[in-house]
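Render this sequence as a predicted structure.
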Amino acid sequence: MSSTSHEAVSDPVTTGISRKGLSAGAVGLIGAVVIGISCIAPAYTFTAAIGPVASEVGAQIPAIILVGFIPMLLVAFGYRELNNRMPDAGTSFTWATRAFGPWVGWMAGWGLVVATILVLSNLAGVAVDFLFLLLAQITGDPAIATVAAGTGPLDPGTWINIGVCFLFMLGATWISYRDMQTTQKVQYWLVGFQLLVLVFFAVAAIVQTVSGNGFDFQPFDLNWFNPFVVSSFSAVAAGLSLSIFIFWGWDVTLTMNEETKDPEKTPGRAATVTVLMIVSLYLLLAVAMIMFAGTGTGELGLGNEDIQENVFFHLSGPILGPLAFLVSLAVLTSSASSLQSTFVGPARTLLSMGHYGALPPSFARVSPRFFTPGYATIVSAVVASAFYGVMRVLSEDTLWDTILTLGMMICFYYGLTAFACVWYFRRQWFDSARNVIFTLVCPLLGGIILAVLFFTTLIDSMDPAYGSGSEIGGIGIVFILGIGIIVVGVVIMIVQSIRRPAFFRGETLDVDAPPSIRRR
């Protein structure tokens, strides 16, 4: 590796894109795809989402997956174009700043960081739950599954849960702090195992069904892929919010753009390949599970609320028999691997915000040994751990409500980034047919869809029935959390603008400046 690959930029930042001292050329196409799949955590997200989606849209789960895939693909095209022009670790933050100015750019970065830090705490909690479920399956002692299921601050199980969660977080932080080669080596094994188990589970479910052993046999029907059969737009919107959640995380491939080989092309290609692989896997799983269990409310039906928190766990025994523990192990590895890879996004966005003066300069520190955003990684871990600890003591429902706000935050910063693509390339829209499609039509449609979903979810979440049922003054807690996160971001942004005005005056990252990479 050349000496310039790891060389930090010590001279002042100009108004153009500049390097931050990360390890260049450390990640190839396959490595980026693996990390992208890991961040999405298909085993974890699908088992959590398939039940609620079935309750909303019945057997039209494949249709909703495809419809939810559309805005993700449209936005991915916009991300690819922005990355081709401006490969920068700050992604949404940097691109929205270059398109709309520092204020909108700062909020786009805030949306990405908050969403990922919130989900970090949830992933750690899921890893804890599945660790004890797996131990219960292996030992044959169901009591072990409840060891960490504390119900309050006085219950020892609560503190066992928090302690094990912190250990998971510590391990993920240690791997993330080290070089990207370490991250890739770990993810190859974890993601490979997860995908093999999921495909094995789907094939086994189909074989069991056609052999006459299905719980509620449903013959394959192409009508499952028709979204127009869904009864109402509200049901479609609710299903789409969940569908978008199960795709979320592919953009981590873009935050590694300064560390990839061929940074103008590899991250965009990795994002597209990741999304296509995930949608194929989800459709296979959805079809297999509908055929085997149906969407009714029976014991194993996908519409049964009692199994919706963890559908894989409840179906694994009837489908795989003595190999059922593999599914729990897959979800455990899914959440654990995603916990580690999810650190990549917020750490590099915080690094970029510190580098360009939007946050304190300490966030711009890069580990001199591993060439990773060490300080930002540690801060992300501490905040996520503290959030999980506090919420776990107060209420599990509160934690679940915060996760429901992720749908809004995802739509918020993805949508801003899609519109940033449209506006940034406005002078090149009609230079070619390709530009019309990929810099105007695709990101514009993706942004509009996400904006509609954002405001629809915002309005629906005002009802206390949306989420856990908690409310303040008759207003649903999910709405309050979503608006609260945005308001807190605005307050912090104003404080930063007073303490660090240079960024907000466009002195460190200019609007629409020539997108060049500074090299020493």
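Summary. The chain has one domain: 56-461+472-504. Residues 1-14, 513-520 have pLDDT under 50 and may be disordered.
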